[in-house]
């Protein structure tokens, strides 16, 4: 997840219209996943497209590729063949990936390493929001060695935006993605981060870790602005979740772009989470 720096300046409405908070990743090197200064091959781009992900602004990073702003596709993801007959559908339901967390009921441990106390507090708050839904997938905060580890990196702005956090999708074996990266740069959350805002970002990145795509992957324009984009059908990558709305859901916790506030689960999100877990 990423934010535009202009949102913190009190500039005019005209300027603010172009600084929505987006789940995007810039090309600067980070402590956690340094970005390679090499071009992404046409073969890799085709593989990413075949998986149902956008090929706009793809970055090669250690261990894989960063796509759609805050989603890590590992080398394992890239090597996996399609295992589902589902096709991508251009509607606005909540979407999941073909990989989900397995062996339910299950408790996944989460830890925070080398980050200020407010990040640990926000992580515990985010886990509590999931646990309050009484799903078969639960989370437990541990001091070290969590199955999901929240770590920090320090990355300044690029192109007017600054990264807030990123994560990836479950493995083919059914384990959650093992890492969430949160930016400690002062221009990301300020010198005194708001715990509720941090909670909402962590809540979103945890959604990716357990298999959720961006709700508006088919058309980011209604949450991010700009031109409507839809990458079309594919054999893997976005599976609709029955019972979620057929129209745009502008309040989902998994929207590609944030409203800058403390966004949590809406009623449709809860339907999606209960359907899967």
Automatic annotation (TrEMBL):
Highest rank taxon of the organism: Bacteria
Residues of the signal peptide: 1-22
Pfam name, any one: Peptidase_M57
Keywords: Hydrolase, Protease, Signal
Gene3D superfamilies assigned: Collagenase (Catalytic Domain)
UniProt-listed GO biological process terms: proteolysis
PROSITE patterns in the cross-refs: PROKAR_LIPOPROTEIN
UniProt cross-references to InterPro entries, sorted A to Z: MetalloPept_cat_dom_sf (IPR024079), Peptidase_M10/M27/M57 (IPR024653)
Entry's Gene Ontology molecular function annotations: metallopeptidase activity
Protein name according to UniProt: Protease
Species annotation: Mucilaginibacter terrenus
């Amino acid at each position: 997840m990423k934010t535009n720096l202009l949102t913190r300046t009190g500039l005019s409405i005209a300027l603010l219209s172009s600084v929505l908070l987006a789940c995007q990743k810039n090309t600067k090197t980070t402590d956690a996943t340094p970005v390679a200064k090499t071009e992404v091959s046409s073969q890799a781009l085709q593989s990413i497209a075949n998986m149902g992900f956008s090929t706009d602004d793809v970055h090669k990073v250690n261990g894989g590729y960063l796509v759609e702003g805050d989603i890590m596709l590992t080398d394992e993801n890239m090597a996996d063949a399609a295992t589902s007959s589902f096709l991508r559908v251009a509607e606005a339901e909540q979407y999941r990936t073909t990989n989900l967390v397995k062996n339910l009921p299950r408790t996944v441990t989460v830890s925070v390493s080398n980050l200020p106390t407010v990040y640990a507090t926000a992580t515990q708050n985010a886990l509590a929001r999931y646990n309050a839904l009484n799903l078969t997938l639960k989370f437990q905060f541990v001091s070290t060695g969590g199955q999901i580890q929240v770590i920090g990196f320090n990355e300044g702005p690029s192109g007017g935006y600054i990264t807030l956090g990123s994560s990836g999708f479950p493995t083919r074996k059914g384990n959650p993605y093992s890492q969430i990266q949160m930016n400690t740069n002062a221009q990301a959350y300020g010198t005194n981060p708001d715990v509720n805002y941090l909670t909402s970002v962590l809540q979103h990145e945890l959604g990716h870790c357990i298999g959720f795509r961006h709700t508006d992957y088919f058309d980011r324009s209604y949450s991010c602005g700009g031109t409507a984009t839809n990458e079309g059908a594919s054999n893997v990558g976005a599976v609709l979740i029955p019972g979620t709305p057929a129209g745009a859901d502008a309040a989902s916790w998994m929207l590609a772009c944030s409203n800058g506030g403390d966004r949590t689960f809406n009623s449709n999100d809860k339907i999606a989470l209960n359907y899967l877990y």
